[in-house]
Amino acid sequence: MTLARPLLLVSATALALAACTSPDVATDDPRTRTKQGAVAGGILGGLLGVMSSGDGGERTRAALAGTVIGAGVGAAIGYSLDQQAAELQRDFGDQRISIINNGDHLVVRMPQEILFDIDSAGVKPGLRADLQVLAGSLQKYPGSTVQVIGHTDNTGSAAHNQDLSERRAGAVTSILIGAGVAAGRLQSFGVGEDQPIATNLTPEGRALNRRVDITIRPNG
């Protein structure tokens, strides 16, 4: 195989994966991520089979085997994320908690207003039940790594916001560990004001930026 053909395959695969996993595509199908995972996994598996094999029939057989294996793995991951997202949406008591399914990982977004008082890292009693729900879900689906990430708006000094975001992430992580989630699965850190999702020029935007994101990434 010439150098040009693998490069063309990589380019085509990147475009296909972007189309398959885009979180902006509206759909009413609850199994969308399962299907997207199967397609993306199949594309990647087939590409790896082609690029790692010899010529002729051997390359074709490797491509087909890679496609089948990749599709199975992708579908399994997509199905697991679909199920976990649906169950969390059903079981959380506070509907202000957002669950974002990005195809290959989930983000559970908890606004500061429901988690903490202003300038505090003490989790409000009312949210502990929902953190217990999240802990139960993480134990039911153990094959993932979990990042607990604290975020703030840009009010105050950057150093203060960084420290506050770290303490808030640590507080949520401690509750999850106390509820039975293995500490080795959890990564806790803060990014302060550095990753806003809205403008900091309005009260509404600053409220969106003050949050804790729990990112759930399946292993494998």
Detailed description of the structure:
The two termini are 29 Å apart. The protein is globular, with a radius of gyration of 21 Å. 56% of the residues lie in helices and 14% in strands. It has 220 residues and is α+β, with helices and mostly antiparallel strands. Helix 2 runs antiparallel to helix 3. 34% of the residues are buried. The chain contains seven helices and five strands. The protein has helices at residues 4-21, 32-52, 56-91, 112-115, 125-140, 158-178, 203-209; strands spanning 98-101, 106-111, 144-151, 186-190, 211-218. The model is unreliable at 1-19 and 21-31 (pLDDT under 50). A five-stranded mixed β-sheet has the order 1-2-5-3-4. A hairpin with a 4-residue loop joins strand 1 and strand 2.
In short:
This protein is of the alpha+beta class and 220 residues long. It is built from seven helices and five strands; from the N terminus they run H-H-H-E-E-H-H-E-H-E-H-E. 56% of the residues lie in helices and 14% in strands.
